[in-house]
Amino acid sequence: MNEQPPSHRELFVGMLQVALSAFGGGLSAWSQRIVVEQRGWLSNEEFLTGLTVARLFPGPNQINMAVYIGAAFRGLSGALVALAGMLLVPFSLLMLLGVAYFSFHTLPAVDRVLAGVVAAAAGMALSMGFKILDQYWKDPVALLLAAATFVAMEFFHLRLVPVVLIAGPLAMAWYWPRGSSSESQP
Fold first, then answer.
1. What is the CA radius of gyration of the chain?
2. Are 53 and 68 in contact (CB under 8 A)?
3. What is the pLDDT of residues 69-85, one digit of tens each?
């Protein structure tokens, strides 16, 4: 991790880089790559903690993550600057792309390009999943919770909110710090 916290300008540019890198999806993977691997603002564990917090709150995960990162380093002003970096340019581009799409969406080439973007986004999501798996590979409870969540949503078609309302408290209860650090759970 960097010893100096990122400046307001660095927060804006970093979140803008995340937003512009993630065309077609994969924001979590790009965010992890830029915030942890390239800029060294957070450790992988800190990033995963922030991502978990971001996913617990309503709204888009990466918008919440930008607010989390900005606030962690520069308080309210950092949160607003990071949010602006995540939203201003991408929103403007989205409006322009929307106009272009509705003008040209009947062309077969546009459909094929979008199919390619979806495939790339799926690959980015898998990449993020494997990076997280590496972090928790030796933690059977984490793997069990992940597998149970996957099975509940994929095979039993349970909705996200009930799964989070059940799995979230179970995970928090299991991982809640108890006593000294040598006595706490993995």
1. 19
2. yes
3. 999 999 999 999 999 99
